[in-house]
Write a structure and sequence with these properties.
heterodimer; A: mainly alpha; two-stranded antiparallel sheet; 18 helices; 6% strand; B: mainly alpha; four-stranded mixed beta sheet; two-stranded antiparallel ribbon; 36 helices; 6 strands; flat; disordered N terminus; disordered C terminus; coiled coil (chain B); phosphoprotein (chain B); delayed rectifier potassium channel activity (chain B); voltage-gated channel (chain B); transport (chain B)
C-alpha cells in the first residue's frame, strides 16, 4: 500500500502521465494511472480527454490553464483531499467537521460512488439523513397547515375548516378551546370511572345489586357523547378516511368509545330479548375494563407521552431483553427458592409457579412480604435474587432511557429546525419570484 | 500583508480602468482569508450579488474595493480579508454549492459573526447544521443572559441612596457574603448552628417523654425547649430584620425566594403566640388549637433556611424550577400508570373474598407503592390475574420512573457545573480587580501594554514635530539636530534639573514585567523628548536666559549655515519645503527609533514587545521597514528643511500664529488636522510620498492620523486598544507619562500653562495646512488619492479594533 505515490501538493509542473488540478486554490499533481483505477470518475475522464478539445475540457472542469496544464475546479478543497483517498486506499473517510450531506454532494460531483464510503462514516451519514427526512416530514406537515384553501366547493372548505378545528389546537382560539375541553372531559371521565367503584357512593338497584350512582352515570354518558361527537367529526373531516381509521391515536379513541355502546346495546338486548342475563352481565363487566383505554387518549395532548411511545417502539429489542432477563431470573430463583424452602415445614412456597410471584416481587425490589423465605439457604437465595434483579433491570433499561432522552431532546431541536426550513423555503421562493419579475421586466 | 507590500510602495492606487481590466482579464480570483488562499471563479461569486464577496465583483474603484476587503493586489488578483479562515471555507462552499453548512468545531457565536461579516443571513444554514447551530446559539444566549444578570446583580448592590450607606454596605456584606470577611464567616456558621438547633428542638418537642401537660390535660411544649425555641426565633428575627434594613432594594429583598423562606420560618411562631394569647379566654379553643397545630408544622420550613448556606441545595431548587416540564412528565407517567394498573387490579381482584381492593381509588395506594417499588405489603393481589398485573406494574413502574429522571439529572448536573464555573469566574474577576488596583495588570494584558507603548510612540511623534517646528522658529535646522547626535548629547546635560527630574520619574516607576520595562523606557524616552522640546521653548520665549542654551543656539545656527551652503542647489518652493518638514517629523520619529542616542531604549522596546507577544511581530517589522525607508532619503530632506529654515517666509508665517497660539483650542486643531494635512502629502514629490506611506502603514505613528492634541488621542487610543479592561490605572499611568513634560514646562515657563506645547503643535500644523490649502489648489485632483490612502488605514484600524 505504501508504495503507491501520495498526491503531490504544490509542485510546480507535471510530467508525462500526470495532471495538475487546482481545487479552489489548492494545487495538486496527480498520477494518471492512479486516477484510472476509477474510470468512471471525473478525474479519470479528465486524464483521458485530450487537452486540445476545449469543449470537453470545459464540460469537465471550470477552467483550464493551457500554459501550466492546470485544470481548475471551483470546489471545496477540504472535501477533495478526502475524496482523493479513494484512488489510493479504495475507501473514503469523511474528515471531521465536514457535513456529511455536503460531502455526498462533492462525491457526486467527482462521480465517485457512495459505496466507497467507509462503514464508520456511513452510519454517521445515515443518521444525518434520517434527521433530514424527519425534518422534511415536519416541514410537510407545517406546509399542509399553512396551505391556502385551494378547494373550491363549499363542502370541501367546511371540511378543511373542521379538520383544522379538531386536529390543530394551535391554528385558532376555537380549536384551542376544543382541545382543552376534550382534555378536561378525558380527565373527568377517568375520575368518574374511578369514583364509580367506591362502594359508599354506589346505590342498590331493584335487584339488590350495587350499581353506579345515577349522577355519575349521567356524567359518564355526557362524556361519552362528547367523545363520540369528537370522533365522528374528526372522521368526517379527515381527508383520508382509511388512514384516519387505522392510525394509532384514533384506534384508541375508538376503543374508548365502543364499550359504552356495546354495554348499552347489551343491556337493552338483555332486558328485551331472551339472552341469558348472567352472560350479559359478564360481558358488561369485561367491557368495563376497556374503559381504561380512555386514559390513553391523553397521549394526544401530551408530546411527552408520544415521545414515550416512540421511544418504546424504538427500543422494542431492549424491552424484549429486559423481559428475557427477568423471566430467566424468575425461573431460576423461583425454582431455587422452592427447592430450598422444601425443608421448612410451614413453607410459603407451595409450588414453583406460586413462587414465581415471590421472585418477581423480590427481583423488582418491591417486596410485599406476603411470601418470604424462612430457611437460611432460602434467605441467601433471596439476597442473590434481589441483586440479580437489580442488575437485570438496570442493564437493559439504560438503552431504553437513552433512546427516550435522545428522542426527547431531538424533538425540541427538530421542531425549531422544521420551522426554520419553512422560513428558508419562503425566502427562497420569494427570491425566485423576485428574480422572475426582474427577468420579466428586462424582457 | 507581504503580497500587498508592492501595492503600497508604488504609492498611487490603481486606476479604475486598471481594476476593470485585470478583472475582465481573469476568470478566477484569489481570496486570501487570514492567510489561507482560496481560488474561486468570478461567476461563482456572482451567485449571491448582495453579499460581501458578491459586491466585490461590482467594485471597480479603489475605494469601493478597499471598503470591502482589507487589502488587495491586482497583479495576481488577490484580495485579502483579515478574518477567520476556518469559517470561510464553509462560507465559500455556500457560493459553490448553494448550501451553507457549518464546520462542526466552529463556535456558533463566532460563526454567526463571520456570517454577519460576509453578509450572509444565518437563515440559509442547512437544516442538518441548523439544529446544532441554533441549539448552541440559544445556549450561548442563555449563558450570556445569565452572566448579564449576574453582573447586574452585582451592580445593583449599590448603596448610594440614603444615609449611612457605608455602614449599611458593611452590614450587608457581613450578612450576605460569608466569604467577604472572617466575621461574616463566623456569623454564617452561627446561623447554621441555630437552624440545626431549632430543628432538633422541634423534633424533640414531639417526644412524649419530654412533653408536659397543661391544665386541660393536653400535652404542651417542654419549657426548656420552648426557651431554646424562643432564642432561636429571636436570632432569626434579628437576622431577617438586619438583612432587610441593610438591603439596597427592599422590594427585591422581600421578593427573593430565600428571604420568603426566612419569613415563613419566623412567622408561624409569632402567629401562634398571637393566637394563643388573644384566645386564651375565648371558648373556641379547639379551633385555635388546630390552627396552632398547622402553624407548628410550618415551623419545619426553617430547615429550608439551610439553602442559603449551601449552593447544592440552591442548585437543586433551581433545577426543579427549570425542569418542571420533565417533572410534569414524570408525574403524568406515574399518574397514568397508577390509574391503569389500579383499575386493572381492581377488576382482577374484585370478586375475591374480603379483598382489600374495594374500589379503584382504594387500589391507587397499592399501585403507587408497587410502581415506586416500595412494597409495604399491606395490600397485595391474591388471584393469578392480579399477580400478573402486579408483576407488570412493577416492571412498568421501574421503566416509567427511570425514563424522565435522566433529563432532570442532566439539568441538575449542567446547572451545578455552571454554578461552580461561575463561582470560579467571580473569584477570577475579583482577583483581576485586585491586581488592577495594585497595578500589576500589565503582565496580564499584553495587548494593553502594546497599546500603551504605541501611544507613547505617538507622543514622541507629536513631540518631535513640535520640536522641529520650534527649531524652525529659531532658525535652527532640524537636520542639524538630527544629523548630529553629538549636539543632542550636549543638549541633554545642559538642563541638569530636568534630567534629575526625569531620572526621578524613572525611579518612581515600579519595574516589574518586561512590558513594564519597555513602557518605562518609552517614558524615559519621552521625558528626554520633553526636555529637548522645552529647550527651544526657552529660547523662543527668552524666558530662561540660560547662557549655556544660548551658546547652544549659536552652535545650531552655525551648523545651519554650514548645511545651508551645501543645500543651496535645492530650488523647491517654500511650500514644498514646509511639507517636507512634515515628512521630517515622520523621519524624525523613525530616526529616534534608530538614532544612536536612543538605541538602548528603542532596542529594549522592540525586544520587550517581541518577547511578550509574538503576534505583534508583523507590526514591528513594518515599523522597522518604515524607519529604514525614511532613513535613506533623510539627508536630502534635511537639506530642504534647512533651506526652508533660513528662507525669509518661514518666520513670517510662523510668528503670527504663535502670537495667538493660546487661543487655539484642541477641537480646531483636530478638525483641520487630518484633512488638509493629507493634502500636503499629496503635493509631495513621489519620493516623499514613499515615506509617508511607509510610515502611515503604522497608523498610530504617523502624524497625519493623529489629532494634534495629545490628550484626545490618548483617550481614543486607549479605548481602542484596551477595550473592556481599561481602568483608571492606565489613564493615570499615561497621565504620569505625559505629566513630566508639563511639569517641566510649567517650571520653565509658568506663564505658559499646561497645554501650551500641544497647542503650539497643533497651531503650527494648522498654519501649515492653511498655507498649503492655498498652494495646493491646482493639485486638488490628487486629493482623492490621499483620501484613499487614508481610508484603508482607518478601515484597518476599525477592523482590528472591532
Amino acid at each position: 500500500m505504501w508504495t503507491t505515490p501520495k498526491p503531490n501538493y504544490r509542485r510546480g509542473f507535471c510530467a508525462e502521465g500526470e495532471i495538475a488540478v487546482n481545487i479552489g486554490g489548492v494545487r495538486v499533481v496527480l498520477f494518471g494511472d492512479v486516477l484510472n483505477r476509477y474510470p468512471e470518475s471525473r478525474l479519470a475522464e479528465l486524464v483521458k480527454c485530450p487537452t486540445q478539445n476545449h469543449e470537453v475540457v470545459s464540460s469537465l472542469c471550470d477552467d483550464f490553464d493551457p500554459s501550466r496544464k492546470e485544470f481548475y475546479f471551483d470546489r471545496d478543497p477540504d472535501a477533495f483531499k478526502c475524496i482523493i483517498d479513494v484512488y489510493y486506499f479504495d475507501e473514503i473517510h469523511i474528515k471531521n467537521g465536514i457535513c456529511p450531506i455536503c460531502f455526498i454532494k462533492e462525491l457526486e460531483f467527482w462521480k465517485i460512488d457512495k459505496s466507497v464510503l467507509d462503514e464508520c462514516c456511513k452510519s454517521y451519514l445515515s443518521e444525518k439523513e434520517e434527521e433530514l427526512t424527519e425534518i422534511s416530514n415536519k416541514v410537510k406537515v407545517i406546509l399542509e397547515d399553512m396551505e391556502v384553501d385551494q378547494c373550491f366547493t363549499r363542502a370541501q372548505r367546511c371540511q378543511r375548516y373542521l379538520w383544522r378545528l379538531m386536529e390543530k389546537p394551535g391554528s385558532s382560539l376555537a380549536a384551542r378551546v376544543i382541545a382543552i375541553a376534550s382534555f378536561l372531559s378525558i380527565l373527568v371521565s377517568a375520575v368518574v370511572m374511578c369514583v364509580g367503584t367506591i362502594p359508599e357512593l354506589q346505590v342498590t338497584d331493584s335487584e339488590g345489586k350495587l350499581v353506579e350512582h345515577p349522577i355519575l352515570e349521567g356524567i359518564e354518558t355526557v362524556c361519552m357523547l362528547w367523545f363520540t361527537a369528537e370522533y365522528l367529526l374528526r372522521l368526517a373531516s379527515s381527508p383520508n378516511k382509511l388512514n384516519f381509521a387505522f392510525s394509532f391515536m384514533n384506534v384508541i379513541d375508538f376503543m374508548a368509545i365502543i364499550p359504552f355502546y356495546v354495554v348499552l346495546s347489551l343491556t337493552h338486548l338483555g332486558t328485551s330479548s331472551m339472552m341469558e342475563l348472567g352472560n350479559v352481565q359478564q360481558a358488561v363487566q369485561a367491557l368495563r375494563i376497556m374503559r381504561i383505554a380512555r386514559i390513553f387518549k391523553l397521549a394526544r395532548h401530551s408530546s411527552g407521552l408520544q415521545t414515550l411511545t416512540h421511544a418504546l417502539k424504538r427500543s422494542l429489542k431492549e424491552l424484549g431483553l429486559l423481559l428475557m432477563y427477568m423471566s430467566v431470573g424468575i425461573f431460576v430463583f423461583s425454582a431455587l427458592a422452592y427447592t430450598m424452602e422444601q425443608s421448612h415445614p410451614e413453607t410459603l412456597f407451595k409450588s414453583i409457579p406460586q413462587s414465581f410471584w415471590w421472585a418477581i416481587i423480590t427481583m423488582t425490589t418491591v417486596g410485599y412480604g406476603d411470601i418470604y423465605p424462612k430457611t437460611t439457604l432460602g434467605k441467601c437465595n433471596a439476597a442473590v435474587s434481589f441483586l440479580c434483579g437489580v442488575i437485570a433491570i438496570a442493564l437493559p433499561i439504560h438503552p431504553i432511557i437513552n433512546n427516550f432522552v435522545v428522542f426527547y431532546n431531538k424533538q425540541k431541536v427538530l421542531e425549531t429546525a422544521a420551522k426554520h426550513e419553512v422560513e428558508l423555503m419562503e425566502l427562497k421562493s420569494g427570491r425566485e419570484a423576485r428574480r422572475e419579475t426582474r427577468a420579466n421586466r428586462e424582457t | 500583508m507581504m503580497k500587498t507590500g508592492p501595492r503600497l510602495t508604488t504609492a498611487l492606487p490603481p486606476d479604475t480602468i486598471d481594476i476593470i481590466q485585470s478583472k475582465t482579464h481573469t476568470r478566477r480570483v484569489r481570496l486570501n482569508v487570514g492567510g489561507l488562499i482560496h481560488e474561486v471563479l468570478w461567476r461563482t461569486l456572482d451567485r449571491l450579488p448582495r453579499t460581501r464577496l458578491g459586491k466585490l465583483r461590482d467594485c471597480n474603484t479603489h475605494e469601493s474595493i478597499i471598503e470591502i476587503c482589507d487589502d488587495y493586489s491586482l497583479d495576481n488578483m488577490e484580495f485579502f480579508f483579515d478574518r477567520h479562515p476556518g469559517a470561510f471555507t464553509s462560507i465559500l462552499n455556500f457560493y459553490r454549492t448553494g448550501k451553507l453548512h457549518m464546520m462542526e468545531e466552529m463556535c456558533a457565536l463566532s460563526f454567526s459573526q463571520e456570517l454577519d461579516f460576509w453578509g450572509i443571513d444565518e437563515i440559509y444554514l442547512e437544516s442538518c447544521c441548523q439544529a446544532r447551530y441554533h441549539q448552541k446559539k440559544e445556549q450561548m444566549n442563555e449563558e450570556l443572559k445569565r452572566e448579564a444578570e449576574n453582573s447586574r446583580d452585582m451592580e445593583g448592590e449599590e448603596f448610594t441612596t440614603t444615609c449611612c450607606s457605608e455602614k449599611r454596605k458593611k452590614l450587608w456584606d457581613l450578612l450576605e457574603k460569608p466569604s467577604s470577611s472572617f466575621a461574616a464567616k463566623i456569623l454564617a456558621i452561627i446561623s447554621i448552628l441555630f437552624i440545626v438547633l431549632s430543628t432538633i428542638a422541634l423534633s424533640l418537642n414531639t417526644l412524649p417523654e419530654l412533653q408536659d401537660t397543661d391544665e386541660f390535660g393536653q400535652s404542651t411544649d417542654n419549657p426548656q425547649l420552648a426557651h431554646v425555641e424562643a432564642v432561636c426565633i429571636a436570632w432569626f428575627t434579628m437576622e431577617y430584620l438586619l438583612r432587610f434594613l441593610s438591603s439596597p432594594s427592599k422590594w427585591k429583598f422581600f421578593k427573593g425566594p430565600l428571604n420568603v423562606i426566612d419569613l415563613l420560618a419566623i412567622l408561624p411562631y409569632y402567629v401562634t403566640i398571637f393566637l394563643t394569647e388573644s384566645n386564651k379566654s375565648v371558648l373556641q379553643f379547639q379551633n385555635v388549637r388546630r390552627v396552632v397545630q398547622i402553624f407548628r408544622i410550618m415551623r419545619i420550613l426553617r430547615i429550608l433556611k439551610l439553602a442559603r448556606h449551601s449552593t447544592g441545595l440552591q442548585s437543586l431548587g433551581f433545577t426543579l424550577r427549570r425542569s418542571y416540564n420533565e417533572l410534569g412528565l414524570l408525574i403524568l407517567f406515574l399518574a397514568m400508570g397508577i390509574m391503569i394498573f389500579s383499575s386493572l387490579v381492581f377488576f382482577a381482584e374484585k370478586d375475591e373474598e374480603d379483598t382489600k381492593f374495594k374500589s379503584i381509588p382504594a387500589s391507587f395506594w397499592w399501585a403507587t407503592i408497587t410502581m415506586t417499588t416500595v412494597g409495604y405489603g399491606d395490600i397485595y393481589p391474591k388471584t393469578l390475574l392480579g399477580k400478573i398485573v402486579g408483576g407488570l406494574c412493577c416492571i412498568a413502574g421501574v421503566l416509567v420512573i427511570a425514563l424522565p429522571i435522566p433529563i432532570i439529572v442532566n439539568n441538575f448536573s449542567e446547572f451545578y457545573k455552571e454554578q461552580k464555573r461561575q463561582e470560579k469566574a467571580v473569584k477570577r474577576r475579583e482577583a483581576l480587580e485586585r491586581a488592577r488596583r495594585n497595578g500589576s495588570i500589565i503582565s496580564m494584558n499584553t495587548k494593553e501594554a502594546f497599546g500603551r507603548s504605541v501611544e507613547l510612540m505617538d507622543i514622541m511623534v507629536e513631540k518631535s514635530d513640535e520640536k522641529t517646528e520650534k527649531l524652525h522658529d529659531n532658525h535652527v535646522s532640524p537636520s542639524v539636530q538630527r544629523g548630529t547626535p553629538k549636539l543632542k548629547g550636549q543638549m541633554s546635560p545642559c538642563s541638569p534639573i530636568k534630567t534629575l527630574e526625569s531620572s526621578y520619574q524613572e525611579q518612581a516607576k515600579p519595574s516589574g514585567s518586561p512590558q513594564h520595562l519597555s513602557v518605562q523606557k518609552l517614558e524615559e524616552m519621552y521625558n528626554k523628548m520633553a526636555k529637548i522640546q522645552s529647550q527651544p521653548d526657552f529660547d523662543s520665549k527668552e524666558k530662561g536666559p540660560l547662557p549655556k542654551a544660548v551658546g547652544m543656539r549659536a552652535e545650531f545656527e552655525m551648523a545651519c549655515i554650514a548645511t545651508d551652503g551645501i543645500s543651496s542647489t535645492a530650488e523647491a518652493v517654500t511650500h514644498l519645503r514646509s511639507i517636507s518638514s512634515i515628512d521630517s517629523f515622520i523621519s524624525c520619529t523613525t530616526d529616534f527609533a534608530e538614532s544612536s542616542r536612543f538605541t538602548h531604549s528603542s532596542n529594549s522596546n522592540v525586544t520587550g514587545k517581541i518577547s511578550t507577544n509574538p503576534s505583534l511581530e508583523p507590526t514591528l517589522e513594518i515599523e522597522q521597514e518604515g524607519s529604514q525607508g525614511t532613513r535613506t532619503p533623510q539627508t536630502g530632506q534635511s537639506k530642504k528643511t534647512s533651506l526652508y529654515s533660513d528662507s525669509p517666509r518661514g518666520p513670517r508665517f510662523n510668528k503670527p500664529h504663535k502670537s495667538h497660539s493660546l487661543k487655539v483650542n484642541f477641537r480646531e486643531g483636530e478638525d483641520t488636522g487630518t484633512g488638509p494635512l493629507s493634502d500636503s502629502s499629496s503635493v509631495q514629490s513621489p519620493e516623499v510620498s514613499v515615506y509617508t506611506t511607509a510610515s502611515s502603514r503604522t497608523p498610530t505613528k504617523s502624524p497625519e492620523n493623529l489629532p494634534p492634541s495629545i490628550f484626545t488621542f490618548h483617550d481614543a487610543s486607549i479605548n481602542q486598544f484596551i477595550d473592556a479592561d481599561t481602568d483608571e490605572e492606565d489613564h493615570l499611568r499615561d497621565g504620569s507619562g505625559t505629566n513630566p513634560s508639563q511639569r517641566l514646562l510649567e517650571k520653565a515657563s509658568p506663564k505658559f500653562g499646561h497645554h501650551s506645547s500641544f497647542q503650539q503643535g497643533s497651531n503650527h500644523k494648522g498654519g501649515l495646512q492653511r498655507k498649503l490649502g492655498n498652494s495646493t489648489l491646482p493639485l486638488e485632483g490628487q486629493e482623492n488619492h490621499v483620501a484613499r490612502e487614508l481610508q484603508p488605514l482607518h478601515g484597518e484600524k476599525s477592523h482590528s479594533n472591532a
